[in-house]
Amino acid sequence: MVSINDLFTTAEDKSPVWVGRSKLLQMLPQAGESATSSCIYVQPGDNSDWICKDENWKHRWELLSSKIGEGALTNDTGIACIQFDDYGLVIIPPFPVDKNSAYDHLDYDELYKSLSLDYLVGVVLLRLGRFSVAVFKGTDIVVSKTDSRFVKGRHKKGGSSQRRFERIREGQSRKLFDKVCETVGNTFEPYSQNLDYVLLGGDAITINNFLKVCPKMESMEPKILSRRLNIRDPKRDTLEHVGNLLWQSRVYFVHWNE
Questions:
Q1: Whole-model pTM?
Q2: How many CA atoms within 13 Å lie on the side-chain side of 15?
Q3: Domain's final residue, options 64, 86, 117
Q4: Distance between the two ends of the chain, CA-based, in angstroms?
C-alpha cells in the first residue's frame, strides 16, 4: 500500500490524488503526532469568519487558497485539513462534513464518522445512446437499471441536410432524456424519502442538457452533489465499480512553509 511518505515525495501541490475509503482510513494513522500537530474540519459554505478566529489556521487557509485554488476550498462537501510539522493533508471528502470543528492535535473521529456511514446514494450515468440509473447503500447496489436508445452521431456536412439531421438528432436525444427521466422516477421513488445524495456521471454536455428537461432531477436538486463520476460508458459492468468511486476522497499534499 502507498504510504503518506511515498505520496509526499511524488505529489506536487495543486495535484490532487484520488484515494478510496479503505486506503484513506489506513493511511491516516501514518501521520505521526507531533507537538505542533492540529486539524480542522470545515463544512460546506462560507466559513471565513469562523476560520479567522484562529490566526494559525487563518494563515494556513490563505496559503491553501494560493496553493490548491479557491475553487477547491469552496466545494459542496467541505474540507478536512490535517497539519503535522511542516506538512499537511487537505482532504475533500466524498460527502459533506456536518459541522465546523478544530483541534490542537490529530483527531480523525469526524473523518472516520463521515467515511463510515453507509449513505443511500442515487446515481445517474448518461451519455448519448446509453444510461444507467442505480441506488447504492454504501458500496453495494440496491437496485439498478441500464438501457440504451439510439441517437445519431454528429453530421459533418453543412447546408439543409445538416439542419435536417440535427433536428432528427435533437428529437432522438429528447426521447432518450424522457426515457432516462422516467427511469429515474421509477428507480428512485421507492427510496425518495431516505435518499441522502445523488451523483451524476458520463458525458458532461449530455448530463447538463438532461438536467434542463427532467423534472424528477429538478425536484432532487438539493441532494445532487457537484462532483461528477468519471464514467465514460454506462453499463451494468461499470456499475460494479461505481460503489468504490462514490467513496473516493480528493487529497492534496501540501508543505506549509513553501
A1: 0.85
A2: 7
A3: 117
A4: 28
Angle between helices 204-213 and 159-188 (to 10 degrees): 70
Q: Write the CATH number for 108.
A: 3.30.960
The secondary structure element, H or E, covering residue 122 is strand 120-127
Question: Which one-letter amino acid corresponds to residue 250?
Answer: R
Whether residue 124 is found in the same domain as residue 193: yes
Could you tell me if 238 and 231 are in contact, meaning their C-beta atoms sit under 8 angstroms apart? Answer: yes
Residue 193: inside a domain:
yes
Three-class SS state of 106 = coil
Tens digits of residue pLDDT in 196-253: 999 999 999 999 999 999 999 999 999 999 999 999 888 888 898 999 999 999 998 8
Over its C-alpha atoms, the chain yields an Rg (Å, rounded) of 21
Residues 153 and 90 in one domain: no
**Domain boundary residue among 117, 152, 184?**
117
CA–CA distance, 15 with 96 (Å, rounded to integer): 22
Query: Is position 78 within any domain?
Result: yes
C-alpha to C-alpha distances, 256 to 35, 47, 70, 122, 249, nearest whole angstrom: 16, 21, 16, 38, 21
Are 193 and 217 in a shared domain? yes
- Phi first, then psi, for residue 77 (nearest 5°) are -125, -5
Q: Print burial letters for 7-40: b (CB count within 10 Å at least 16), e (below 16).
A: beeeeebeebeebbbeebeebbeebeeeeebbbb
Per 3-state DSSP, the chain is made up of helix, strand and coil in percentages (nearest 5) of: 40, 25, 35
Domain that holds residue 138: 120-243
> How many structural domains is the chain composed of?
2
Is residue 255 in a domain? no
Local structure of 159: helix, strand or coil: helix
